[in-house]
Amino acid sequence: MASLAMKANELVKWFGEGDAKTHAVREVSFEAYFGEMLYIEGPSGSGKTTLLSMISGILRPNSGTVTVEDKEIWSLTADELAAFRLHTVGFVFQDYHLFPRLTTIENVAIPLILKKLEWNESMNIAMQYLEVVGLKERAHLTPVKLSGGEQQRVAIARAIASRPDILIFDEPTASLDGDTGRRIVDFVKKNILNEKRCILIVTHDSRIFEYADRIMKMEDGKITGVTRGGPNEK
Amino acid sequence: MKGILKLAYKLLVNDKGKFAALLVGITFAVFLMVMMTSMFAGILYRSSSTVINIGAKIWVMDPAVNTVVSSIPMPDYILDAVRSINGVKYAVPLYSGGALVKLRSGVYQSVTVLGLDDTSLFGRPELIEGNIADIYADNAFVVVKDSEFPKLENPKLGAEFEINDHRGVVVGIAKVTTGGLFGIPTLYTTYKRAIQYIPSTRYTISYVLVEPKSADAVQYIKQQVGSLGYVALTADEFKQRISNFYKYQTGVGTNVLLMTIISFIVGLSISGQTFYTFILENLEKFGALKAIGAKGKELVYMILFQATFTALTGYGLGIGLASLLIALAKLRLPSYAAKIAYANLGFAFIMVLIIAGVSSYIGVRKVIKIEPFDIFRG
């Protein structure tokens, strides 16, 4: 049986006060396991990005807990939370957020530099991860000279460079055409997912549902159902 | 930390347009501030040129004197009275006044005449041509070879001129530490000849130059001179009095101060605005760094480093540019009175640090406030 990667318990988040108060997430509880690719799916405004932010130590919930490696992350200080994000969580943002003034390899090395590794050592490790995503030859180009799919792979290389236990993708196929999107997710499933890593993907792109181990459906801030991934299991 | 700073460095310099704009802003500000303050320092330095060149430790004068050229003649007995003060090693008179000389070509030229004590020649300049003993010859004058020397038609030893219907002969050509402020040549002669050749009032001593027996005696000498109704100032005090006059009573100081403040504001505006734009454009990226795991203080270090690096580079360029311009100006205009002193450099450095501080404060405030959640939300 796969071991527990993280556990969210009764998470609640609202924005605004009084008449403007909006509940983004309402008492959501779930567990994610190592070795699985868990999708959070739902329409815009359903609260999936807010949920993702709370479980990754970015957005403090109004109530509820998130436990990773037996630690309740929202009891950590700001610096400890930053260290948690650096060492335990890897992010692939929707718009990648690559630094246009840095080369591809420097972008990938950012988490390693933040981990206080020497510059040259960071570059060597970053090159290894660029090789993993098949972009070794593009190492010294700036991101603007890469295609959307290549930029996505650079973002993946950056996210896995710090060897995180939990990898979070925010709408990974939103800026890509269907084929490229599927290729990327297929690549992630085959090369990045392993027994010691859990991947959480926020998406509403049904074309990549076939790669999910589980799909958690959200609506109005609540989980409305969990299904297995793959066209035959839906 | 080194890696983070290198990252900050690359983020800064790889954005060539913004980096250039930042450098231009700070370089321009430093250039203007250094030029303004150097010009002022040069003016102040030159305004005390006689005090510097004569080299006396104590100057006795009328209390109303503000600058060397505005001396108020004192009666002869003051010299004797000063000489009799306990603690005075020796005291000599100095004549300082202006005159018109008629050159061989028939051209009239204003000059400053300094009459040195006949016995000691105390305060005499260093001769580069001629013999100092020749100053005792008839009609003898020593000409200072400074930036104003050509105005006397580059006289050689033996050259003659007219001064108040008296014949003057150049017996020596001298050099001094610094030229004067007013763009007129300087002639040295003996005290007796000076007061004989140049019409003056009943009293003739411009200053009494005093050498104290020891540093401890200075205060007592000042008290005793004060009791005579005159004032005794050390060379530094006299220079300070001259500086204060130009700073506070001529408007020069106020104008230079205003120009310096304007330079500072221009520099601050350009670099502050550009740095703010730079931070705004990179705000999402800083947010992404925060989401990835950068601590708030690490982002602050990055911004401080970027601001400081830009400020110091701009400072160096500004100083270099100002030095170059002053050097070029002095090649063309030997009397150009600009002087880069440590105080100017220190002042500009502090101003640049303030520019860097204010610019980075704006950036830090923005970056500290950015929530990584905003990056997710898009």
Spell out the blueprint of helices and strands:
The complex is a heterodimer of chains A (234) and B (378).
Chain A: E1 4-15, E2 22-33, E3 37-41, H1 48-55, E4 63-68, E5 71-72, H2 78-88, E6 89-92, H3 104-114, H4 119-132, H5 148-161, E7 166-170, H6 178-192, E8 198-203, E9 214-219, E10 222-228
Parallel strand pairs in A: 3-8, 3-9, 6-7, 7-8
Antiparallel strand pairs in A: 1-2, 1-4, 4-5, 9-10
Chain B: H1 2-13, H2 16-47, H3 49-54, E1 58-61, H4 77-83, E2 88-102, E3 108-116, E4 126-130, E5 140-144, E6 160-163, E7 166-175, E8 186-190, H5 191-197, E9 207-212, H6 217-227, E10 231-234, H7 235-249, H8 252-281, H9 283-292, H10 296-332, H11 342-369, H12 372-377
Parallel strand pairs in B: 3-8, 5-7
Antiparallel strand pairs in B: 1-9, 1-10, 2-3, 2-6, 2-9, 4-7, 5-8, 6-7
Helix pairs in contact in B: 1-10, 2-8, 2-10, 2-11, 8-11, 10-11
General description of the model:
The complex is a heterodimer of chains A (about 230) and B (about 375). Chain A is an alpha/beta fold and about 230 residues long. Chain A has a single domain, classed as Rossmann fold (3-Layer(aba) Sandwich), CATH 3.40.50.300. The two termini of chain A are about 20 Å apart. The model of chain A has no long low-confidence stretch (mean pLDDT about 90). In chain A, strand 1 and strand 2 (about 20-35) form a beta hairpin. Helix content of chain A is about 30%, strand content about 30%. Chain B has two domains: about 1-45 and about 250-375, no CATH class; about 75-230, no CATH class. Chain B has helices at about 1-15, 15-45, 50-55, 75-85, 190-195, 215-225, 235-250, 250-280, 285-290, 295-330, 340-370, 370-375, and strands at about 60, 90-100, 110-115, 125-130, 140-145, 160-165, 165-175, 185-190, 205-210, 230-235. In chain B, strands 2-3-8-5-7-6 form a six-stranded mixed beta barrel. The mean pLDDT of chain B is about 90. Classes of the chains: A alpha/beta (about 230), B alpha+beta (about 375). Chains A and B meet through helix 1, helix 2 and helix 3 of A and helix 1, helix 9 and helix 12 of B.
